[in-house]
Amino acid sequence: MKLESGMAAVVTGGASGLGHASAKALAAQGLKVAIFDINDEDGEKYAAEIGGTFHHVDIMDEQSVVDGFAAARAANGQERVTVHCAMASKRGKTLGWDKEKGGYKRLPTEEYEFGAQGILIASYRVASLSALGMANSEAVNEDGERGSITLTASVAAQDGQIGQVIYGSCKAGVNGLVLPMARDLMDMGIRVNSVMPGIFATPLMLGMKDRNPQMWDQLNASVPFPKRLGHPEEFASLIVQIASNSYINGHQFRLDGAIRMPPR
Q: Could you give the CA distance from residue 205 to residue 192 in angstroms, rounded to a whole number?
C-alpha cells in the first residue's frame, strides 16, 4: 500500500517508546497520525510535534477505544494504518515462595486476567474496531487494499522467561491472532501482522542506564549483533515497511539482533 500524504493512521501507545517512534515515522511519510494514549501531557506534545492529533484512550475500556476511533476519524478521516503498541500487564511466577507464611503461593488468577485484558484482549479490541472502520471504506489501489494493522508482540512470545507467565503467554496469544484474523479479513483487503521486538532502548529501559550501569552493560552484551539494545527508530522502520508492502500479510516478525532469551 502506497503511503500517501494525508492518509490517516492510528498509533496506540504513541506517547512513548516504540509507539512514539512509530507515530513519528508514519508522520514523516506524510500520514495524519492520531495518537491514542493515557499520558495526556506527552501525547499532546508529541501529536503537536508531528502535526497529528491526540486522543485520551484507555485500551482496557471498550467505550474509550470506540470513542477514540470516532474522534480520530472525525479529525483525520478513516485510518488506513493502525499500529498497536499500548499494553498493560503484571509480572509474577506461577508459584512463588511466601516469605511471611512459608510455603508456596500461587499467582492470583485476577493478576493473570489483568494481563490478558491489557495485552491479548486489548489487541483484539483495537484491531477489530479498526478493521470494522476499514472494511466500510473505499478500496484505493489495484489490489483492493483497504488497510494494514500491525500488533506488537514480543520475543517473550517464544522465549518467555521466569516470571513472564502472563506476559509471555499473552504475547504469544497476540501472535496467534495474526493468521486467523488476516484470513478473516482477506476479502475486505485488510492485512494483519505482528512484530516481536527484543530488548529496545525505550524510556523504561534507559532508566536502567543510570540506576544499574552494570546490568545495562550486560543487556547490551547479551545481544549477538549488533551488541546493543534496539533503537525505537529501527522498530518504526519495520512498521513503515509492513504498512507499505502489500505482500506482507499474516506474518510475525522477530526484531531482536538474533537474541534468544535465557530462562532468567
A: 28
Length in residues, the chain: 264
Q: Put the strands of the sheet holding 8-12 in their side by side order.
A: 53-56, 32-37, 8-12, 79-84, 147-152, 190-197, 252-255
- Bond into 226 cis (ω within 30): yes
Residue 3 neighbours by CB distance under 10 Å = 17
Q: Look up residue 32 and give its amino acid.
A: K
In order of their start, the domains of the chain are 8-202+230-255 (3.40.50.720)
The answer to whether residue 167 is catalytic is yes
- Residue from 46, 104, 112, 167 carrying the catalytic annotation: 167
Which three cell numbers, joined as nine digits, stand for 164? 513472564
Residue with cell 509507539: 19
Task: Kindly list the averaged pLDDT for each block of 10 residues, start to end, along the chain of length 264.
Answer: 95 97 98 98 98 98 98 98 97 94 96 98 98 90 94 97 97 98 97 97 85 90 96 98 98 97 90
